[in-house]
Write a structure and sequence with these properties.
Blueprint (H helix, E strand, L loop, with lengths): L23 H13 L9 H5 L6 H13 L3 E5 L18 E2 L2 E2 H4 L2 H6 L1 H17 L4 H13 L3 E5 L5 H4 L7 E3 L2 E10 L12 E3 L41 E6 L8 H11 L6 E5 L10 H8 L3 E6 L3 H4 L12 E4 L2 H13 L5 H14 L1
Parallel strand pairs: 1-4, 1-9, 4-5, 9-10, 10-11
Antiparallel strand pairs: 2-3, 6-7, 6-8
């Protein structure tokens, strides 16, 4: 495999997420995300703001018809999938963590230079991810995976673990960028992050160590709030050799896990692909973006669900859409459950009626 670098009867939703009132932090994150796209959002709550999205009836009908006849479907998932759950996307105007570009902290060099700073960044991300809830888009994709089995594969770039918490089957999910909830040993030589004793494990403790506990009544992402000094000796340590642990994520300039790449390529080699669903990603990071190109070569039509306008999303040749593809702008938590229900049935929730109203208005 060569990859360039009708309403259905309701079915039980795997671990259906509840919908509590969004926290102030979640609302702040989503407002930053909307502002970064230069798009005026309507409404006052986290969910109703995205429900202002409108879908032309012809697009809804054409997509549903193609979806219900599709036998092999792939999905590429990005940060926008979790935005309405309150997870920062670190793109655009909301892309800074304190005074730092988030991408500057997600590198081996950054960890080698200041492991305490990088661990504080990831401890903050773990803390908020642990308190976030999967949204209805996570639930819709989880049901699609449960229904289609090996005929569906979701390739997620997200490290927050919300797809898994929504009940997405492991056999239809590939985490190409690792997970916030995994750690691995790098030993004592920070100049060689491939060292260590080989220890690797899941860890969902919050805080992961006492020194990385979040301060009471303050947001660590606020640059006005001083970071405390954390000694390297107080950072997470390997229980087997005593070396330093690092987050189990794939940083910039690091290779993707080869077992994950092989799994994706093997699936792509498994036959004709009917549909590629792209959710919440700018689709410019390789090699993930190249999967769009590859699936199109194998006959797939592409459906993009993002909050950015189309002219801001299309960045290059790989992600260019054809006239038979779909570009649907809005919050995936609202859009996906409605657009996929011809295949998966109804994912119940307050946003479903909001979106249904917009679709019907197109027909009047």
């Amino acid at each position: 495999m060569s990859v360039p670098t009708q309403d259905a009867d309701p079915k039980p939703t795997p671990n259906p997420p509840s919908h509590p009132k969004p926290s102030k932090h979640s609302q702040k994150v989503f407002k930053q995300y909307a502002k970064s796209t230069k798009r005026k959002m309507k409404g006052t709550s986290l969910l109703s703001s995205a429900a202002s999205a409108s879908i032309p009836l012809e697009d809804f009908t054409a997509f549903t018809t193609h979806l219900t006849s599709s036998t092999r479907i792939m999905a590429l998932l990005g940060a926008g999938l979790s935005a309405s759950s309150g997870i920062p996307t670190f793109r655009g105007a909301g892309g800074l963590w304190r005074k730092y570009e988030a991408t500057d902290l997600a590198t081996p060099d950054a960890f080698a230079a200041d492991p305490a700073l990088v661990w504080q960044f990831y401890a903050w991300r773990r803390h908020h991810a642990a308190r976030a809830r999967p949204n209805r888009a996570h639930a819709a994709l989880a049901r699609l995976g449960a229904d289609m089995g090996e005929k569906f594969l979701a390739v997620t770039q997200n490290i927050d673990g919300l797809s898994e918490r929504a009940g997405h089957p492991e056999e239809s999910l590939v985490r190409i960028h690792g997970s916030l909830w995994e750690v691995r040993c790098v030993g004592v030589d920070l100049g060689s992050l491939d060292g260590g004793c080989g220890y690797r494990a899941e860890n969902r403790d919050d805080p992961i160590v006492p020194a990385l506990a979040m301060p009471e009544g303050a947001d660590l992402s606020d640059a006005e709030f001083p970071l405390k000094e954390v000694d390297v000796e107080d950072l997470p340590r390997c229980p087997e050799c005593g070396g330093l642990l690092r987050p189990g994520v794939v940083w910039f300039w690091e290779s993707l896990p080869q077992e994950n790449v092989k799994r994706i390529h093997d699936w792509l080699d498994g036959g004709k692909i009917d549909l590629m669903i792209v959710v919440g990603t700018s689709a410019v990071v390789m090699p993930a973006a190249a999967y769009i190109y590859t699936t199109k070569k194998q006959g797939a039509r592409v459906a993009v669900f993002v909050i950015e306008p189309e002219e801001e999303w299309e960045k290059g040749e790989v992600s260019a859409l054809d006239k038979d593809d779909w570009f649907i702008q809005g919050d995936a938590a609202v859009l996906l459950p409605e657009m996929l229900k011809g295949k998966i049935g109804i994912i119940r929730g307050p946003e479903a009626q909001d979106l249904k109203k917009h679709v019907v208005e197109q027909a009047i």
